[in-house]
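Subject: Sanity check before I submit

Could someone independently write out the structure tokens for this chain? I want to compare against mine line by line before I put it in a report. The sequence has 360 residues.
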Amino acid sequence: MASLAASISSCFHGENLLSSSCSSLFSRTSLNFSQSISGSGFTGRKQFVVFAKRLSGLEESMRIRREREQKTTTPIKRRIPLRRLKVSPRLPVPDNIPKPPYVSSKLLPEIASEFQIHDEEGIACMRAACGLAARVLEYAGTLVRPSVTTNEIDKAVHQMIIDAGAYPSPLGYGGFPKSVCTSVNECMCHGIPDSRQLQDGDIINIDVTVYLNGYHGDTSKTFFCGNVDDATKRLVKVTEECLERGIAVCKDGALFRKIGKRISEHAEKFGYGVVDRFVGHGVGTVFHSEPLIFHHRNEKPGSMVEGQTFTIEPILTLGTTECITWEDNWTTLTKDGSPAAQFEHTILITRTGAEILTKC
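---
Independent answer below. Compare away.
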């Protein structure tokens, strides 16, 4: 808030003086003052008229928007911090379903160095895997409501994937014990489903990857559970917009670093942090490969190639982008407990743009 000594013109440049001073300027075209003048035996009154500067249309609309948001925005609901509850045993997968090679080891696989660029047959397989992942994610979202546990979501997702003759890619990846990642509220990513019931006002990112006919399709979305406060809703909306803007710059020959630039520019307009610890990645016959896709501003080299597939998956936060990871070596939370949101698509680079493969 500006001091009382500030110039009255500050009202027209976004500074918040006393409301009574500013509102009088907004509601009148002029202000009248009287001042007594005396001297040499003469006493009279001189009239002064001060004309208020009119707001431009843009400034006026911004003022109205701020007032409306102040009236309608509900405060962020204080939530009980997340803690690990009971994790149920790993679910079985029928022997006839092909499994990725990492399932036989608990070691975290290396990031493959080769880009994943596909011929027509490979692109058809990617479309099939990504299409299934998108349908599974859409179904998982219908399960989100208060009292449902993340373990129940995992079980339903697991069943849908194996019914389709596919393998849930996260299961057994570096020892990950579940078929889907469920990241609630302050969890940035890699949340392990457990017995915690979703609460009214929660947000939850569900990250689905399927392995179908030797190809991985990877996607995620943040869902609302019940009545979510306006500030968190806005975070989720802007995160999805950031993903869309990142995809919009993609095409054959485009620089990878443009993705991070475009995402950061949009997030910064709203004061949100862009998490730099977690990245997008090449995906195809291998779950994680080069190129690594940075969502923040960066100067990394490299250009996109027609036929290439990779994910873009920005994480935005209401507070700090610093994080802490639980002893399970997976579940990662914002250090200050502020909400985080994430969206992800697998895309195919074309000559003129990008095809989003993980759309229903």
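---
OP: Matches mine. For the report I'm noting this point. Confidence is low (pLDDT under 50) at residues 1-56, 68-74.
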